[in-house]
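agent> Task received from the user: take the single chain below, predict its 3D structure, and emit structure tokens. No templates, no multimer pairing.
agent> Plan: (1) validate residues, (2) run structure prediction, (3) serialize to tokens, (4) report one or two observations.
agent> Step 1 OK, no nonstandard residues flagged.
tool_call: predict_structure(input=
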Amino acid sequence: MTAELVRGQNHPLTQTRLEIRVSAGAPVVAGATLSDDEGRVHGRDWVAHPGAPALPGLEVPRQAAADHRLAVDLDAVPEAAHRVSVLLALPTGPGDPDRFGAVAAPFVAVTGLDGSEVASYTITDLDAESAVVALELYRRQGAWKVRAVGQGYAGGLGALLTDQGLPDARALAGEIGEAVARGLARTVAPPPPRTAASGASAMADAAGAASHAASPGTHPSDGPPRSTQPQSPAEPQSSPAPRPAHEPQPARPSGRTGPVNYTHPGRQAPAPPVPAPTAPPAEPGQPAVPVAGDATGWSMDERLYNQVWGMFEDLARCVAAYRSAVDFADSRMEQELDKALSDPRSRIGGQGDAAREAARAKHGQLVDRAREVLDRDLAQLAAESAVVEPALPPAYAGWDNPVWHAYGSPMEIPMALRLGDLQLPESRGVGLRIPMLVRLPLERGMWIDSGRSGADALTESDELRRRALRSAVELAARLLAVYPAGEFAVHVIDPAGSAAGALAPLVRAGVLAAPPAAGVAGVSDVLARLTQRVDLVQMAVRGGAADALPPDLDTAEQLLIVNDFPHGFDDRAVTRLRYLADEGPAVGVHLLMVADREDAAEYGPVLDPLWRALLRLTPVPDDHLADPWVGHAWTYEPPHVPPGSRILEQVLEEVARARREQGI
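)
tool_result: status=success, residues=664
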């Protein structure tokens, strides 16, 4: 049960990994300080703020916003620190409120990582204060507690830090204000009040689509791709394609009319709060100015995730409208030509030629008009992509994004992971690609198809296998990087030892749970251990006895990379592999296979459920992903480290360093 605290009241904490959620009536700067048992802050390196957001056990937002999430790991807080104080301050920019009495009372909640609320506190009775110590987490007899403080300071952040004993408090407060002012932390407008309709019910019907990964489609030999339920960005709601605004009778089902709506909250994103758009108003007749994070969500990562989802939806919609208009133009021209040719008198002479020429001219006008609308929409989406892509966090960013050069081990699991890019033929001219994001934790395994595909039938078989192995290593490295240290483990099965070269970055960094397993015995041993883990966790969960798991059981998420399947697999090993693919994701065991389906053709239909259970990816661009919304066949492009870049090695070195600090 949640404890609703009043000023001065405390409450015990039973968890050490927590989240502090802040909701205010205006953008505020959130920070935190570490202090000793007397409440003194020893120096700047004991203050987390937007300009320096991370301390051991603490991570605060980089922007001023009306809603914040602060990550806290009390086990990682230095022994010398006995208190963690959560600070809120009003920005000092022009037009910003200068006192808390002029805005709605801030609300602060302490939650577990699963979102369950532990304690909450509404900071009331503030007036002239522009900075406040909202609450503090403190040690008492070896245990942690939370206390509602609500101590405000009319002198602002400088007075607050001075009161905590920081020697150069005024100077640091000025630096924090400058960091916010020059854009190191973006100010985000507050969301409007939530209503019952805009909460959990607003997107409840889309929860199913949002919880599934992109469909593997079909194997090249199986014919055209199937329409299944893909995940964001290939996770649109089931909705008919829109019709072009300029024609009343399209050949495809009609939906929303008019051009693509690029402003929010016009996009429907699966999150309850709807902030006001942060973009400046566009001039009449001009497209909206794109802004990164201009979407719904409680944090910038959530806003960016929903914005990518919206970009995918917009691209699908505008291309569907264009194709529908072209289909309509083709159908109309055929009807007019048939009508002209059905009259024997018009088959000869100038009358028939004129009718045919008029039909073709009208067809060209309709297609040109549709193309003009499409080009406008694609240009706007390309401009938005150019703004969004550099702002993406590591979990959403490509390997060429500079954000990876400042990578540090995270404190919490991100919402989603980027698996590559999605593209439609019409968007290639402007180079528009939509990040393909899947929600974490993964809900299904993955299969990197090392066989020949229709999109790249000329690539040599050995080269495809090398690319597939490289894709698997890069994907495993990305998963290790976005999870907190020690919360993700990678196992490798390489029966013939053919992947030694590709696996070298993982082996050299020392981030594998064990050396790659080789031979039939190695395959059997790894599969047996992971199968036993699945069984134990399933029994514990079903019996409500999660605390009864063996002490040596690794509770981290597990990823099994299987290379060169089915080499080294007997019937028992194949059965275990299928079991892991079906039952593993629900209890944190995930499968990443690198295989050519033709190599396992001797098993026949026995393995069909295995292939269907996995998300099929390709090491080369291929149009095998289909969405159920408008039926587009999306071209998937795998993410690759730029040639000559050492970013993969640097990221793995940082992962290894963080694991060593955790004693792993």
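agent> Step 4: summary for the user.
Confidence is low (pLDDT under 50) at residues 184-259, 262-278.
agent> Done.
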